[in-house]
Design goal:
Blueprint lengths: L2 E3 L5 H13 L3 E2 L6 H6 E2 L1 E2 L5 H15 L2 H7 L1 E4 L3 E5 L4 E5 L4 E3 L6 E3 L2 E6 L7 E2 L2 E5 L2 E5 L6 E5 L4 E3 L2 E3 L2 E10 L4 H21 L3 H17 L3
Antiparallel strand pairs: 1-14, 2-4, 3-7, 4-6, 5-17, 6-17, 7-15, 8-9, 10-14, 10-17, 11-16, 12-13, 12-15
Bound molecules: 2-oxoglutaric acid and fe (ii) ion (FE2).
C-alpha cells in the first residue's frame, strides 16, 4: 500500500529547509547505502551527524508526530532520524531494496524498516525526471508529489529514482518501524480507522461508531508490539 500524506510541511517550512540545505555541505550518498544499493546509488546527501540534518530532522519529526494521517497509516513505534538527499542533472538511484535493520547513529537503538518515506522538498515543476518508482503488487507506481507532501510505502518494495534530466530534486527520506509489523494488518487498521473517522464526520457520535472504535482498539491490542 502506497499512501500520499499531504502537507507534512507547510510552504514556509519547506522554504526554511531549502535555505538550510543550500548552506549545508553535500557528500556522496553512498555513505548510508548497503552493499547492493551502493552500486545503484548516485546522488548527494548531507552528513547524518550535521547540525543541518539534526535541526531539519527535528522539524520533520515534530510535524509527523502531530499528523493524523501519518499516525493512522504508519502506527509508528520508531522513526529513523530523517536524512536529506538531492539528485542533480544526470543523478539517479537504480532499483534496490532498503536494508531491513538500521542502527541509529550515536544511540543504542535499531530501527526495523517496515515503511519507507520520501518527503518532497522541490516543487515538481522545478525538475524533470526524478520520479520515485515503486514496484507494488499492482504494478509500478510513479511518484512525484508537491513540495511538503510525502509518500509512505512498504520497505519490502523494490524501488528506484529515475535520472533527473533538468533541475535538481531535493527530498528528506527516512524509515519507520511500525507497532504493527504485518503490512496487511496495518492496512486493515488504516482502512477501519479511515471509515470510522468518516462515519463520525457524517453522522456524529453513534452507538455504531463507538462499537467500531472498540473493534479498532481491540485489533490494535492484538497486533501491536510496543
Ligand atoms: O530519494 C528517494 O526518494 C528515495 C531514496 C532511497 O530510496 C534510499 O535512499 O534508499
Ligand atoms: Fe531506498
Amino acid at each position: 500500500m502506497l499512501i500520499r500524506i499531504p502537507e507534512v510541511l507547510l510552504s514556509e517550512e519547506v522554504a526554511h529547509c531549502r535555505t538550510v540545505l543550500e548552506a549545508a555541505s553535500w557528500v556522496d550518498g553512498k555513505v548510508t547505502a548497503g552493499a547492493q544499493s551502493r552500486e545503484a546509488k548516485q546522488n548527494l546527501q548531507i552528513p547524518q551527524n550535521s547540525e543541518a540534518a539534526r535541526e531539519l530532522g527535528e522539524i520533520i519529526l515534530r510535524r509527523l508526530g502531530t499528523n493524523p494521517a501519518f499516525t493512522s497509516a504508519a502506527l509508528p513505534l520508531r522513526v529513523y532520524p530523517p536524512l536529506f538527499n538531492r539528485y542533480d542533472e544526470g543523478m539517479h538511484f537504480g532499483t534496490h531494496i532498503d536494508n531491513a535493520i538500521r542502527p541509529v547513529p550515536g544511540v543504542n537503538l535499531r530501527v526495523r524498516t517496515d515503511l519507507s518515506g520520501t518527503l518532497f522538498l522541490t516543487a515538481p515543476e522545478d525538475y524533470d525526471g526524478g520520479e520515485l518508482v515503486i514496484e507494488d503488487t499492482y504494478g509500478e507506481q510513479r511518484v512525484k508529489f508537491s513540495a511538503g507532501d510525502m509518500v509512505l510505502y512498504p520497505a519490502t518494495s523494490r524501488h528506484r529514482v529515475e535520472a533527473v534530466t533538468r533541475g535538481s530534486r531535493w527530498c528528506s527520506f527516512f524509515w519507520i518501524q511500525s507497532m504493527v509489523r504485518d503490512g496487511e494488518a496495518r492496512a486493515t487498521l488504516f482502512d477501519l480507522d479511515t471509515a470510522i473517522q468518516s462515519l463520525r464526520a457524517k453522522s456524529g457520535e453513534s452507538e455504531e461508531a463507538v462499537r467500531l472504535t472498540g473493534v479498532y482498539h481491540n485489533l490494535l491490542r492484538r497486533w501491536a508490539e510496543v
